[in-house]
């Protein structure tokens, strides 16, 4: 069973983990946004513009995404 968390908490956790994997200047904020559940997947997706993120961001997210998608769901609004 997935832990139910707020969007703000999940955003901050993802950002903290991404900071360990992506090197570059500044902080990039992306949001987990609610979506319709697909199969057994999460009820959210990590929303970011691949063309606007620091180098390596997408690859880093793809390496760690299962840690978040398997463990957390967004709380009802």
Global geometry:
globular
The number of helical elements comes to 2
Q: Residue ranges: pLDDT <50 for 5 or more in a row?
A: none
Strand order of the largest sheet: 1-4
Structural class by sheet pairing and helices: alpha+beta
How would you characterize the largest beta sheet?
A: 2 strands, parallel
Q: Tell me how many strands there are.
A: 4
Structure at a glance:
By secondary structure, this protein is of the alpha+beta class.
Describe the structure.
With 77 residues, the protein is α+β, with helices and mostly antiparallel strands. It has one domain (3-74). The protein contains two helices and four strands, in the order βαββαβ. The protein has helices spanning 7-21, 57-69, and strands at 3-5, 31-34, 44-47, 72-74. The strands form two sheets. It has a two-stranded parallel ribbon. Strands 2-3 form a two-stranded antiparallel ribbon. Helix 1 crosses helix 2.
Supply the key terms.
two-stranded antiparallel ribbon; 77 residues; alpha+beta; two-stranded parallel sheet
Compile the SSE list and pairings.
Blueprint: E1 3-5, H1 7-21, E2 31-34, E3 44-47, H2 57-69, E4 72-74
Parallel strand pairs: 1-4
Antiparallel strand pairs: 2-3
């Amino acid at each position: 069973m997935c832990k139910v968390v707020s969007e703000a908490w999940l955003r901050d956790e993802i950002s903290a983990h991404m900071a360990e994997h992506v090197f570059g200047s500044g902080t990039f904020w992306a949001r987990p946004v609610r979506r319709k559940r697909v199969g057994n997947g999460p009820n959210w997706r990590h929303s970011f513009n691949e063309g606007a993120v620091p180098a390596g961001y997408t690859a880093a997210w793809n390496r760690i995404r299962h840690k978040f998608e398997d463990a957390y769901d967004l709380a009802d609004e």
